């Protein structure tokens, strides 16, 4: 920025649509779990681009792969085969329940495609009439018109009514409520293995298995929205692996590209062959550039010790927060898995986030009273200790 020019945020307010309440900091560089602003100040990043930068910032293998692919080929469209795309699809299938993959650009697009898939699968098998999807209160599935309609939070869809018809909601974690809500008009259940934007809510043991049973009994498609919980975030490659439950369809995004925009629908053979030529598409989905990044991410997550580090550092974070909670009654509950952590407070989280930022630590909210910590999966033991110290100090200030 040249001397005399307004700050970047002031310039953004003039020309960018006002869809975000941007905070008064502009980041210009990152390395590992650190960010630097345009004034040269360093911050410990416990947000990771809202869970996207799983390898941190400037990871040498990731940046080298992106640069090399950009020099070779960026985009050709899905009218032609793309070697990096095939390689990433093979990796995803090799390390999951999946047999088929569709690539898109975001979690919302992946969820939208999964809803379409479930509707078409049901129509192909049973004819019209079975098209409804059961989702959950306090869920979050995206900002497109269909995915906000599938989101169980009024603040997300308020003002955009009428929402897309065909979605019903039950209480998260309550199998009896799910069974009572299901009808012969349903074709799918859409669920986050851990609710993210809803406050980092972990379901009770057996809940996901119960959903699997209900879907098997009623011939429904079970969709796990793993956009935030996938890609090693919870200490396993995919969150549902903690419970040994597999869906028919899984959606991914965020950490899959290590920071570049990519989403994916992973499905079984039966579900993954429903969308045929002409039924679904994405211009940029799975292009060579983003798949070069995803290829490196998957290699490091499956054979680089990154997921094991997420589990170990997550345990350290949970243990440290438990100690803080024993000394500070502001903490009501610590919940989550791995490095997907929610600290439920007895007070608004916004002032806590401001204090952390002032101390050089970046974190996130998950609702009005939940502090959300989603650091890069490569965070070190020393950096977790630093984060714990900063959180305790921010809470002690009021």
Question: What is the succession of H and E elements?
Answer: HEEEHHHEHEHHEHEHEEEHHHEEHEEEH
Task: Tell how many strands the DSSP assignment holds.
Answer: 15
Task: State the strand order across the main sheet.
Answer: 4-10-9-8-7-5-6
Fourth-tier CATH superfamily name of the largest domain:
Type I PLP-dependent aspartate aminotransferase-like (Major domain)
Computed over alpha carbons, the radius of gyration is: 21 Å
Main β-sheet: number of strands, strand sense, barrel status? 7 strands, mixed
Total domain units: 2
Under the CATH scheme, which architecture of the largest domain would be assigned? 3-Layer(aba) Sandwich
Uncertain parts: none
Overall, the morphology is globular
CATH class of the largest domain: Alpha Beta
Task: List the main descriptive attributes of the protein structure presented here.
single chain; Aspartate Aminotransferase, domain 1; Aspartate Aminotransferase, domain 2; 14 helices; 7-stranded mixed β-sheet; globular; 15 strands; alpha/beta; 4-stranded mixed β-sheet; 398 residues; 17% strand; 2 domains
Give an overview of the whole structure.
By secondary structure, the protein is α/β, with parallel strands linked by helices. It folds into two domains: about 10-60 and about 305-395, Aspartate Aminotransferase, domain 1; about 75-305, Aspartate Aminotransferase, domain 2, CATH 3.40.640. The protein has 14 helices and 15 strands. It has helices spanning about 10-15, 50, 60-70, 85-95, 105-125, 145-150, 155, 175-180, 205-220, 270, 290-305, 305-325, 350-360, 380-395, and strands spanning about 25-30, 35, 40-45, 100-105, 130-135, 165-170, 185-190, 220-225, 250, 265, 330-335, 340-345, 360, 365, 370-375. A seven-stranded mixed sheet has the order 4-10-9-8-7-5-6, sandwiched between helices. Helix 3 runs antiparallel to helix 11. The protein is globular, with a radius of gyration of 21 Å. The mean pLDDT is about 95.
């Amino acid at each position: 920025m040249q001397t005399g020019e307004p700050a970047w945020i002031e310039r953004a307010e003039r020309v960018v649509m006002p869809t975000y309440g941007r905070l008064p900091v502009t980041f210009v560089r990152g390395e590992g779990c650190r960010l630097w602003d345009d004034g040269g100040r360093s911050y410990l990043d416990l947000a990771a681009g809202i869970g996207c930068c799983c390898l941190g910032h400037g990871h040498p293998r990731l940046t080298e792969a992106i640069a090399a692919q950009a020099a070779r080929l960026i985009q050709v469209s899905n009218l032609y085969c793309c070697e990096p795309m095939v390689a990433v699809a093979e990796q995803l299938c090799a390390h999951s329940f999946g047999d088929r993959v569709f690539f898109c650009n975001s979690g919302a697009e992946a969820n939208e495609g999964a809803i379409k898939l479930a509707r078409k699968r049901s129509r192909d098998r049973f004819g019209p009439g079975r098209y409804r999807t059961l989702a959950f209160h306090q869920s979050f599935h995206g900002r497109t018109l269909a995915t906000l309609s599938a989101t169980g939070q009024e603040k997300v869809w308020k003002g955009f009514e009428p929402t897309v018809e065909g979605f019903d909601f039950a209480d998260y974690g309550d199998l009896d409520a799910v069974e009572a809500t299901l009808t012969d008009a349903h074709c799918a259940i859409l669920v986050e293995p851990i609710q993210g934007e809803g406050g980092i809510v972990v379901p009770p043991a057996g809940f996901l298995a119960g959903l699997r049973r209900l879907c098997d009994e009623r011939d429904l498609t079970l969709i796990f929205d793993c956009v935030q919980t996938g890609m090693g975030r919870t200490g396993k490659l995919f969150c549902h692996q903690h419970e040994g439950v597999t869906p028919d369809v899984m959606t991914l995004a965020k950490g899959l590209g290590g920071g570049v925009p990519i989403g994916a629908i992973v499905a079984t053979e039966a579900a993954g062959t429903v969308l045929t030529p002409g039924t679904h598409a994405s211009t940029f989905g799975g292009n060579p550039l983003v798949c070069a990044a995803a290829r490196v991410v998957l290699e490091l997550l499956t054979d680089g010790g990154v997921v094991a580090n997420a589990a170990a550092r997550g345990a350290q974070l949970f243990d440290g927060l438990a100690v803080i909670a024993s000394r500070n009654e502001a903490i009501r509950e610590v919940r989550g898995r791995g490095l997907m952590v929610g600290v439920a407070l007895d007070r608004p989280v916004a002032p806590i986030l401001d204090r952390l930022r002032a101390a050089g630590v970046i974190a996130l909210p998950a609702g009005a009273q939940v502090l959300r910590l989603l650091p890069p999966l490569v965070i070190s033991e020393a950096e977790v200790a630093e984060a714990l110290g900063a959180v305790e100090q921010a809470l002690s200030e009021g």
